[in-house]
Write a structure and sequence with these properties.
The structure is a single chain. By secondary structure, the chain is an alpha/beta fold. The protein has 16 helices and seven strands. The chain folds into three domains: 198 residues, no CATH class; 74 residues, no CATH class; 127 residues, Protein-Tyrosine Phosphatase, Chain A (Alpha-Beta Complex), CATH 3.90.190.10. 56% of the residues lie in helices and 7% in strands. The strands form two sheets. It has a five-stranded mixed sheet. The protein is globular. The relative contact order is 0.11. The N terminus is likely disordered.
Length: 438
C-alpha cells in the first residue's frame, strides 16, 4: 500500500476504433491473407486425405446428439466464415495487428492439424441432401470437405479468433449485428451436422490456447502472481476433474478452474483472454462457469449499492456498472460538456458497449485480490492526470469497486495533492466506501 510511484509508468492505449489507421496496408494484407489461406488449404485438405486413407476411424459423440435438428438455412452462416476470414485482414489498422492475426490463424490451423492426425475422428451423423436454394451450398461443402477433421473444431476456433478483430474495430449496432451473425456461425457447426459437441468444446479450448501462446503486443499485460489463489483454483480443477468421471458436465468447471489456476500461478492476466475491453469468445466459453458465479455474487450483494462515487471533482471510482448505468454515465459527462474517460482494472469481465464505443476507454487488466505493483499504480495515476488535463471526467472501476479501484483512488488523492499521505488518502476513500479492502 505504501509504495513510491515509478518514474516511468506503463503505456496505455485506446481501443482500435479510436486509433488512427496506418497507411499502405493493402499489399501487406493481401500477402498475409495468401499465406494464411494457403496454410489452411494445405493443412486441412492434407489431413482430410490422410485420415480418409487410414480407414476404421472412430466416432466420438453423445447418443442424444442424434436428436439435434438439422437446420439447412444455417449453411449460409457456416460458409460465411470464409468471407470473414478474408475480411479480417483488411480490417486491421496496422502491421502489428496484421502480424498478430496471421500468426494466430496459421498457428491454430497447424496445431489443429496435428490433432486431426494424432486423434482422427469421423462424423457420426449422415450427410443430408437438402433440396431447394440451399442445395448448392451443401454440394459445394461436401465436394470440398470429408467427414473428418473434427476435434478440435477449426471452424469454432477460427471464428473465435477472427471475432476478436471484428469486435475491436466495429461499434454500435453494426457490431451487434455482426456479433449475432458470429453466434449463428457457431451454432451452424452443430445444426448443419458438421461437428459434434466434443469438437465444439475442443475448438473453444484451442482458440484460448492459441491466443494465450500469441498475445497481442499492444495490450497492456500485467504479471501479479498469487500462490494462494493458484492453489485454490488448482484444487477446484482437480476436484471437478475427478467428478467429471461420474458426470462429464464437471469437466467444464474443471477447465475454468484450471485456467484461473494457471493465470494466478503465472500472474499473467492475459491468460483470461481479455482484449480490447472484452473477453474473447474462446475465453468467455471456457470460463463461463466461473463468470456466472461471479456475476451472481455481484448482482446479489451489490445491486443496492451505488455504482460509483466521486473522490475529487471529475474523478469517480466504483464497481463494474451495468449497460444502462454506463449509458447514463456517458450521457451525464456529455451533458456537462465533457467526454468520459474510463480506466477498467478488470481482467475477467466485459466492458459495457457504451464505454467501448463512446468513452475514452483503456484497460489495465489486473487479477482480482492480488497486490498491485508500483508501475501499475503509476500508470493508473498518470492516466487519470492526463485525462483530467484534457478536461475529461474519469471513471476508474474494478469488479466490485472494493479493492483495485479503491487503491488507485487512494494514490490519486496523494498525487493530486488532496491528501498529504497515503494513510489520510485511505481514510478519505473509506469514508466514501466503508467496505473497501485496502
Amino acid at each position: 500500500m505504501g509504495c513510491e510511484l515509478a518514474q516511468k509508468p506503463m503505456t496505455m492505449q485506446y481501443l482500435p476504433n479510436r486509433t488512427p489507421r496506418d497507411p499502405g496496408l493493402l499489399w501487406p494484407a493481401l500477402w498475409r491473407l495468401a499465406l494464411a489461406g494457403a496454410t489452411f488449404v494445405i493443412v486441412y485438405s492434407g489431413c482430410n486425405l490422410l485420415t480418409h486413407m487410414r480407414g476404421n476411424v472412430p466416432t466420438l459423440m453423445f447418443e442424444w446428439e442424434k436428436s439435434i435438428p438439422f437446420v439447412r438455412e444455417l449453411v449460409v452462416p457456416y460458409w460465411s466464415l470464409d468471407a470473414f476470414f478474408c475480411g479480417a485482414f483488411f480490417l486491421c489498422g496496422s502491421k502489428t495487428e496484421l502480424n498478430l492475426l496471421t500468426k494466430r490463424l496459421m498457428t491454430v490451423t497447424i496445431l489443429s492439424g496435428l490433432f486431426f492426425l494424432l486423434f482422427p475422428l469421423k462424423l457420426g451423423l449422415p450427410r443430408p441432401e437438402p433440396s431447394g436454394w440451399t442445395a448448392p451450398f451443401f454440394h459445394a461443402l461436401y465436394f470440398n470437405d470429408l467427414p473428418y477433421n473434427l476435434a478440435p473444431s477449426l471452424h469454432i476456433s477460427l471464428r473465435s479468433l477472427v471475432w476478436v478483430f471484428y469486435g475491436a474495430h466495429l461499434t454500435g449496432h453494426v457490431r451487434t449485428v455482426v456479433k449475432v451473425w458470429f453466434i449463428l456461425i457457431g451454432l451452424s457447426t452443430l445444426l448443419v451436422w458438421q461437428h459434434h459437441l466434443i469438437d465444439v468444446a475442443g475448438g473453444f479450448v484451442m482458440g484460448w490456447v492459441v491466443a494465450a501462446l500469441i498475445p497481442d503486443p499492444r495490450q497492456m499485460g500485467t504479471r501479479n502472481p498469487s500462490k494462494k489463489y493458484a492453489v485454490r483454483y488448482g484444487v477446484g480443477a482437480v476436484v471437478c476433474g475427478a467428478l467429471g468421471f461420474a458426470w462429464i458436465g464437471f469437466v467444464w468447471p474443471a477447465v475454468a478452474c484450471g485456467i484461473m489456476a494457471l493465470a494466478y500461478g503465472t500472474g499473467l492476466s492475459r491468460l483470461l483472454g481479455k482484449e480490447n475491453g472484452t473477453l474473447s469468445p474462446s475465453a468467455e466459453w471456457c470460463l463461463l462457469p466461473i463468470l456466472l458465479v461471479r456475476g451472481w455474487v455481484q448482482k446479489k450483494w451489490l445491486k443496492r449499492k451505488p455504482g460509483w462515487c466521486e473522490v475529487t471533482p471529475g474523478v469517480c471510482f466504483g464497481r463494474r456498472v451495468t449497460g444502462k448505468e454506463a449509458v447514463a454515465m456517458v450521457a451525464a459527462a456529455e451533458a456537462g460538456g465533457a467526454a468520459l474517460a474510463v480506466l477498467d482494472l478488470t481482467a475477467e469481465t466485459n466492458a459495457p458497449r457504451a464505454f467501448r464505443g463512446r468513452a475514452f476507454y483503456v484497460n489495465l487488466p489486473l487479477l482480482d485480490l492480488v497486490p498491485l505493483k508500483t508501475e501499475q499504480i503509476a500508470a493508473a495515476v498518470e492516466y487519470i492526470r492526463g485525462q483530467r488535463a484534457e478536461g475529461r471526467r474519469v471513471f476508474v472501476h474494478c469488479q466490485l469497486g472494493l479493492q483495485r479501484s479503491a487503491l488507485i483512488m487512494a494514490h490519486w488523492l496523494v498525487a493530486s495533492g488532496e491528501a498529504v499521505d497515503l494513510e489520510m488518502a485511505v481514510k478519505r476513500v473509506r469514508e466514501l466506501k466503508p467496505d473497501v479492502v485496502i
